[in-house]
Write a structure and sequence with these properties.
The structure holds 2 protein chains of 2 kinds.
Chain A (H helix, E strand, L loop, with lengths): L4 E12 L2 E12 L3 E6 L5 H8 L7 E6 L2 E2 L5 H8 L2 E4 L11 H12 L4 H14 L15 H12 L6 E5 L7 H18 L2 E6 L2 H7 L2 E6 L2 E6 L1 H5 L4 H8 L15 H4 L7
Parallel strand pairs in A: 3-8, 3-9, 6-7, 7-8
Antiparallel strand pairs in A: 1-2, 1-4, 4-5, 9-10
Helix pairs in contact in A: 3-4, 3-5, 4-5, 6-7
Chain B lengths: L1 H34 L2 H5 L1 H12 L3 H25 L6 H39 L2 H7 L4 H40 L3 H11 L2 H29 L4 H30 L4
Helix pairs in contact in B: 3-7, 4-5, 4-7, 5-7, 5-8, 5-9, 5-10, 7-9, 9-10
């Protein structure tokens, strides 16, 4: 592991019950960079984030954050490390019983003894950074999908984390909201001096903002590189994914028995 | 024939193994809820909020039900006691029936349907919408911050609700027996005072309601936490909370009553 790498995964294998999700992942996330993990739905991208956050443990291999093996940490050490991580969930995961203001204030109230006026100022600054200072008193149910995700982003950066993880930040958003979120990911990463990991399958937006990309398929990394190098790549999987082609190494059909058998057509016919 | 027997045995085996597995998971879950209680004590406001959510909001159903149960006890009790010429013992009958048995059991059943179901739905939806995961990733332990305060809120609310149920029920019995039927007021209260024992009756009733509070709240929390993150998953979990709690209350009531039974 080089000193510039904040996170390193070596030979990581993981399965849910008997279903193998990751079959051998090697990955390094350098400090200060925005790195995308791309792949098809269900390819294990989100699981990689959950492994880095210590929410699940690998069956094999090691995951190190700042040189410490995350799956060997005690409960207390893991929680101390998580204070320096922020995570944006796919649909925001805002606390539905709290207002926007209270959602962003939540980590500050839980982890600091700041007086109320200071918490108020910090919350307003975070909300201003995502352009939603005016929405502070709204309830989560009054927000659009894009706004909810921006509030969740303000909450994720409330404690100025060293690492921000984004789980499918563009899913279900209109083109303007997608552009806004993409822009924020880059801007906040650079302004906070953080490192960001973006799990996504949105090629267009992520190629504009990330420094490096890992392609995950069938539980392993099939390609990696900078956006420029991958745009030029002749690797069949990368070509198919980047250009959104239906023909290629990724089959259209989920594995199944012979079509004729499913239609009840015997071999004799 | 052998094939069917084999399948049947496998099926039974699966049910038993799954059941034991789930029991183990539930025990571990309950253990975590209890040992991560430090924050509930340090920030008692969190527990107070839950006492409001599970206790105060259950008051109406508890008071109304307690009153009706007391009214019926008054009528039925008078009817029976009159046959033996001891209608003035009505106060004792109503109070003992409520404090020893009906107060803790019926209020726990009502608590399971009102507050237990609400807790399961709340935790189930928080889990399905990743609110608990989000909390974990913010380095806030959901066991300490959310589940444990709900547990203590339920455990504190339950005996208070049972006491209110019994008190309102006694008042209901008084209304029917003394005000409507005309049993002597002095006999009603003095017999009750003489025959209801603080340790034998009231304390045993209190122990029951605390045990029911622990059982119902843990079942409600676990079912919510264990619910599959779908609309159907949460709705089944709510149903399971009410059914399992009711069975647990009745079974525990029998066990506790047999231990408390002195035969005197």
């Amino acid at each position: 592991m080089s000193a510039e790498d904040l996170i390193e995964l070596r030979g990581v294998q993981f399965s849910y019950d008997a279903r193998a999700v990751l079959t051998g992942i090697d990955m390094a996330i350098p400090r200060g960079k925005v790195v995308a993990i791309m792949g098809l739905s269900g390819s294990g991208k989100t699981t990689i984030l959950r492994l880095i956050g210590g929410q699940v443990k690998p069956d094999r291999g090691s995951i190190t954050v700042e040189g410490r093996r995350i799956h060997d940490l005690s409960h207390r050490e893991l929680y101390a490390l998580r204070r320096r991580m922020g995570m944006l969930f796919q649909f925001g995961a805002l606390f539905t019983d709290y207002s926007v203001f209270e959602n962003v204030a939540f980590p500050l109230r839980e982890h600091t003894q700041f007086p109320e006026p200071l918490i108020r100022d910090l919350v307003m600054m975070k909300l201003n950074a995502v352009g939603l200072r005016g929405a502070a008193q709204l309830r989560p149910e009054a927000l659009s999908g894009g706004m909810a995700r921006r509030v969740a982003l303000a909450r994720a950066i409330a404690l100025d984390p060293m690492l921000i993880m984004y789980d499918e930040p563009f899913t279900g958003l209109d083109p303007i909201s997608t552009g806004v979120i993409a822009n924020l990911i880059r801007r906040l990463n650079d302004a906070l001096g953080a490192t960001s990991i973006v799990v996504t399958h949105d090629v267009e937006e992520s190629f504009k903002i990330v420094d490096y990309i890992y392609f995950v398929s069938a539980g392993t990394i099939v390609a990696q590189g900078t956006p420029d190098s991958l745009s030029q790549s002749n690797e069949p999987f990368v070509r198919q994914f980047v250009l959104g082609q239906t023909d290629g190494p990724v089959p259209f059909h989920y594995p199944a028995q012979a079509y004729a058998d499913d239609l009840g057509l015997g071999r004799g016919l | 024939m052998i094939g069917a027997l084999d399948r049947g045995l496998r099926h039974v085996g699966h049910i038993v193994v799954d059941g034991v597995w789930k029991l183990g998971v539930a025990s571990r879950f309950s253990w975590f809820v209890v040992i991560r209680s430090a924050q509930s004590i340090r920030r008692f406001q969190l527990v107070l909020n839950e006492i409001y959510f599970t206790g105060t909001l259950s008051l109406i159903i508890i008071i109304v039900s307690g009153l009706f149960v007391g009214l019926v006890l008054g009528l039925q009790g008078y009817e029976t006691l009159k046959r033996y010429g001891s209608a003035e013992a009505l106060g004792t009958l109503v109070a003992l029936a409520l404090v020893r048995e009906l107060g803790p059991v019926v209020s726990a059943l009502l608590f399971a349907s009102r507050a237990g179901s609400a807790v399961t739905a709340k935790i189930g939806i928080m889990k399905a919408t990743e609110q608990l995961s989000a909390m974990e990733m913010m380095a806030v332990d959901p066991f300490a911050r959310v589940l444990s305060p709900i547990f203590w809120g339920g455990v504190i609310s339950m005996p208070l609700l049972a006491a209110i149920f019994s008190a309102v029920g006694v008042f209901g019995g008084y209304l029917i027996g003394v005000v409507i039927i005309g049993v002597d007021s002095g006999a009603f209260w003095s017999q009750m005072q003489a025959n209801v024992d603080l340790r034998e009756d009231i304390l045993n009733g209190l122990i029951k309601s605390v045990v029911f509070g622990v059982a119902v709240t843990l079942i409600a929390l676990f079912e919510g936490y264990d619910a599959p993150p779908t609309a159907e998953g949460v709705s089944y979990a709510v149903t399971r909370t009410v059914v399992t709690s009711a069975l647990a209350i009745l079974a525990l009531d029998f066990v506790l009553t047999s231990f408390m039974f002195t035969g005197v």
